[in-house]
């Protein structure tokens, strides 16, 4: 370990973007604490002893006690970075929990307040995964995709908007990570990733409107640009990634 080693808390990292970001963060030598409702999903990927820098905590991101456990380092500080990729599972035209993201944000912020009230210090950077398609300022998805977002993403999208507001209106350091439509598949190094930046108060600084990005590439970009080395231009901004 070096003085540059970070401790990163992950919520929702057993699949998709979160799992990709976790893998790349571990590969860079950082300590990771992952909260999972079903730890077997991660132990199947990281067998016992294969990743000494990974600590898996069983629990729900809406329950304060396991969240408190995940937000503390071994030496009694608040973690350096928090990555939340929690989200609802689709059930036809709706989702299994339409409030999953807003409840997760509230629990995380309450946990940070509780830790600080007991004298535990730290100012983590929070990376919260949202989705493209719900900017208050401009259309941020292709026009032909609007009906798809209206039919299938309106309920989870509304939840993510509230989550975004909770972090942007807090006094925490944050980045809202928005991806275009997520698809399966390996990293596609032949297609450049385009990045849009939006200020939550004043609107777009640069636009990136696209159709898709793979979960693998989205998680890799998140790890490289927001966790391993945080670019200051993304601090307290909404960031969109797409092919």
UniProtKB/TrEMBL annotation:
It comes from the Eukaryota. Gene3D superfamilies: NAD(P)-binding Rossmann-like Domain. Residues 12-225 form the NAD(P)-binding domain. Pfam families: NAD_binding_10 (PF13460). One of its GO terms (molecular function) is biliverdin reductase [NAD(P)H] activity. Belongs to the avfA family. This is NAD(P)-binding domain-containing protein. It comes from Penicillium concentricum.
